[in-house]
Amino acid sequence: MSGKRIWIPQAVVILMMLWALNPSNPYGYYILLRWITCAVFIYLTYHATTLDNVKFAWVLGVTAFIYNPILRVHLNRELWTVINLITIVIAIASIVKIYPISRSVEEQQDNMP
């Protein structure tokens, strides 16, 4: 994926996390949230690894594991609310940490003869 659009998956996750703060969501919403969040953070982990940002890749990988829809982590609603807020911060940080690096790598590749 082009560095120009690397922020779109995070934006989707951020919006879904904000909507998840609504306590009247059906259970199915949280299942969908797990699938999408896990997939996005697996992708971001891969992307951070290809950019040699190993420490941040670990943060992203652990986040993907927490939202794993197959081997689920069972927590109470209050703890999930805190984790969702932390996930929003991680998603924003990934935009800041991955997007500029991705763009500079693309620009360097474009400037090669």
TrEMBL record:
Q: What InterPro entries does the annotation carry?
A: DUF6804
Q: Where are the transmembrane segments?
A: 5-21, 27-44, 56-73, 79-99
Per UniProt, which keywords does this protein have?
Answer: Membrane, Transmembrane, Transmembrane helix
Transmembrane keyword on record: yes
A Pfam family matched in the record: DUF6804
Q: What is this protein called?
A: Uncharacterized protein
